[in-house]
């Protein structure tokens, strides 16, 4: 970052390109376009596909609200589907929501836990709509030997401050075709096709070289970050008592952006942990369609998303967690659940 500041180029330039090259090589994807947030990446993805007013885009009922917000940015209608035992979009319920207006489905790997891509991809192909992967939480996760953030026509990730690789705010779009990549580059840069020539309506979604330098430096230790997260998760799974964990399918590797547990009396457990100086997060307290913003779009009850939203609690798993701190968390959780 200091080298960038001492150079003559701060905004989108050679450091952004190098960061893009490292990420696309890591994922074995032909093209990558860096943007200024994961939410911007989702907006770019839907604009590449050509989502517009009157279209429907299917999204999971339980995820971060940005997934659905990107649909509204494009004047389309979000259609919600309940989650399964992995807390990801349930492919068994997906087909019930498909109509002649369905143009895309956005799949999220909840907390870094890969979704059921074989079945979801098969459904998308058979009905002729696009698959968008919201990989904001799953960079580094694996699905049957393939990296997550690669299964869709358009794939996105996030480099928000909380993510495993951070540019404070940032994101990236991954595509397999040059045509989709060119569209992504135009949209992120005011629709520009050559200097000061603008063919389409775009945005200022550019990443800066300063941000890219931060992300690229962290990418060099990404393998170590993943190993540490998986070690923390395994220790939790082996040590916590009377706790339900989201299902992880055989053949998948979770990146553990989050470590969610499902527990009765969740709010009481959260208070218990706060009283012992342990911070946790409820991810997420409401299915998206029960957010005030989305009440007009769906009053449907999604039983599995409702249950998860009442029981879910994400425990500390960030990279700075020490062995002693994790043992303390486990001790305090077990002292509550064993009563």
Walk me through this protein's architecture.
- By secondary structure, the chain is α/β, with parallel strands linked by helices.
- It has 2 domains: 218 residues, Type I PLP-dependent aspartate aminotransferase-like (Major domain) (Aspartate Aminotransferase, domain 2), CATH 3.40.640.10; 115 residues, Aspartate Aminotransferase, domain 1 (Alpha-Beta Complex), CATH 3.90.1150.10.
- Helix content is 37%, strand content 17%.
- The protein contains 12 helices and 14 strands.
- The strands form 4 sheets. The chain has a 7-stranded mixed β-sheet with strand order 1-9-8-5-4-2-3, with helices on both faces. A 3-stranded antiparallel β-sheet has the order 7-6-12, with no helix packed on it. It has a two-stranded antiparallel sheet with strand order 10-11.
- A hairpin with a 2-residue loop joins strand 6 and strand 7.
- Helix 2 runs parallel beside helix 8 and helix 3 packs across helix 4.
- The longest helix is centred in the last third of the chain and has 18 residues.
- The chain starts with a helix and ends with a helix.
